[in-house]
Amino acid sequence: MNDRPDRDPNLTNFLRQNRSISPPGLPDLEDRLLLEIDRLPAPTKPKIFNSRWRYLIGGFGVMTIGIIGMTIDRAIAPSEPSMAQLNELNLYLEAHVSGLVAHPESTGEDRDTTVDLDADLLTIDSEDI
Q1: For residues 102 and 1, what is the distance between their CA atoms, to the nearest angstrom?
Q2: CA-only gyration radius of the chain, Å
Q3: In this structure, what are the phi and psi dihedrals at residue 117, rounded to the nearest 5 degrees?
Q4: Which of 116, 117, 122 has the alpha carbon at shortest distance from 80?
Q5: Residue 63, pLDDT above cutoff 90
Q6: How far apart are the C-alpha atoms of 114 and 107, rounded to whole Å?
Q7: Mean of the per-residue pLDDT values of the chain
Q8: pTM of whole model > 0.90?
Q9: DSSP 34
Q10: What is the rounded distance in angstroms from the CA atom of residue 31 to the CA atom of residue 29?
């Protein structure tokens, strides 16, 4: 009986004497439970999920998400450069980049009002990457 040295014989005897006894099983308990379950009303789904409202609500949700996304995109997207910014960039490039050729038709006095850079040159195409 005392195969393992870590067992306490007093504790083992106490637990055997005070062992709880499970009550005997009730006859036909399973059948009674199944009959009670069958008597309960079946759960019904809300009407909104069985009708066209589901698609209307989903459509409005998608449109709302799209509008919010476009608004956020417009808010964080950089705006196109103004004429003053293009002129400033043009003057910087002429002053700091060697080999930049001025247009022959522009003279010195109207150089501040003309823009040599095209706004399309500042955009990056997917082919350039």
Answers
A1: 107
A2: 42
A3: -90, 140
A4: 122
A5: yes
A6: 10
A7: 77
A8: no
A9: H
A10: 6
